[in-house]
Request: fold
Amino acid sequence: MVEFKLDNPDKHDKKREELKGKVITLPELVDYREGTVASRMIISNKAGSITIFSFDENEGLSEHTAPYDAVVTILDGECEVWVAGQTFEMKKGRTIIFPANVPHALSAITKFKMMLVMIRG
Reply:
């Protein structure tokens, strides 16, 4: 599983605050980066978080579980996701819910961007 750590939480909190009350285009919030995964958290609080990710072709997240449901919406491109042993092809506009405590993973077919919404229960 890719783990993201904030190097300067105050700087990131300020950048998130700058988005509030404005019209934004989600896919434009994070650029593609060759050979890697990039992300930008746009909301983070005790109830959950919303993060926008970009994946270069053939990048992905290895199988893992989370203690709460996660909603993934594809914003651009295509990927495959695996949930409890089932494979799904995902493309722009499609959404899937990863159930809490159920193994899941994903891999880019093409470069793709997604929004991840996690709600803590």
Remarks:
- Residues 1-8 have pLDDT under 50 and may be disordered.
- The beta strands are 37-45, 48-55, 60-64, 70-76, 78-83, 86-91, 95-98, 104-108, 112-119.
- The chain has one domain: 9-119.
- The domain at 9-119 is CATH 2.60.120.10 (Jelly Rolls).
